[in-house]
Design brief:
The protein is of the alpha+beta class. The chain has two domains: 56 residues, no CATH class; 91 residues, 3-Layer(aba) Sandwich (Glutaredoxin). Helices cover 49% and strands 11% of the residues. Strands 2-1-3-4 form a four-stranded mixed beta sheet, covered by helices on one side. The termini are far apart.
Length: 168
């Protein structure tokens, strides 16, 4: 783990306090920290370890066991691409390639502007809708290269509009 930037730990303390600093709620505490920071910063994990009186190794064991947690910064928008058999035979490899080229990242990476994280999953359980991608928990089925390009444009154009508003 790398120490990126100093993170104020008041919010971590508030989260831990909301669970009465009870170590049985470690997973929920880590979920709340992930909601706050979009990943689990090292400083936060160290603080949780200290506040719960749990070895850091135990906190890291939980943080690395569950795929819902990340020790690296994730993008604002989390994209999951289903690689299950039904999606695969319906063309998901080309859709994944289109996403990677559009966002200039590979599966498992986060864009430099921290707007997108692209991940692949074995199955999202929506085979009848394949090929399926999930963005921020919202399922998008029967994807094509054209549909996925238009869908990504909505997210990138919304960001560009916000950037232009911020400059004025």
């Amino acid at each position: 783990m790398q120490l990126t930037s100093q993170i104020p730990l008041d919010e971590v303390d508030n989260i831990v306090d909301s669970y009465d600093a009870d170590k049985q709620y470690l997973i929920q505490i880590l979920q709340d920290i992930t909601s706050e920071y979009n990943y689990l910063p090292e400083q936060c994990l160290r603080r949780v370890s200290k506040r719960l009186d749990v070895p850091l190794s135990e906190v890291l064991e939980v943080a690395t066991f569950y795929k819902a947690f990340s020790l690296k910064p994730r993008g604002k928008h989390l994209i999951h691409v289903c690689l299950g058999t039904a999606c695969h035979v319906r063309g998901v490899p080309q859709i994944l390639d289109r996403i990677e080229r559009t966002l200039n990242i590979k599966a498992g990476q986060t864009s430099d502007d921290l707007m997108f994280t692209l991940e692949t999953v074995n199955c999202v359980g929506a085979c009848a809708l394949g090929p399926v991608i999930v963005i921020d928990g919202q399922y998008h089925g029967q994807m094509t290269q054209t549909k996925v390009t238009k869908l990504l444009e909505k997210y990138t154009s919304a960001r560009r509009g916000k950037d232009e508003t911020d400059k004025s």
